[in-house]
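Cross-check.
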Amino acid sequence: MQNFQTSVIILSMSVQNLEITTENLLGVVVNLPKNEFDSFVSNARKLKKREENLLAKLDKFDLSNEEQKVYRKLLEKFRAEKITNEEHKQLTALIDKLESLNVERLKCLVEIAEIRQKTLPEVMKELGIEPKNYE
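Predicted model, tokenized:
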């Protein structure tokens, strides 16, 4: 891992003065010593696979369609101050679930941003992701 980190630092220093294009990056990478090149490629594949797994998980962090309907109905009752104690408990449980799902979704997005070395808003824009709104 030390060699890979050294390669990344050298690569970063080499690329700083270049316009970062695929051609320039490939030119630097192919000139790495064989063991460092192999390590670089292996780590790049692992990062790509990790990113693909995170992207696949994003859709799972959502309330079901039925839960969304119930949530909207209960929220409407709550705002109209016509919610029963039992409905309020159900609404609170849905809010807790929604918050938990949003935290997990955000963790995935932050990790994707770290992999891409971009900000969270940049990644969300690239992926066409906007904050969820169930109202």
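Residues 1-53 form one domain. The CA atoms of residues 113 and 121 lie 9 Å apart. Passed to J.P. for a second look.
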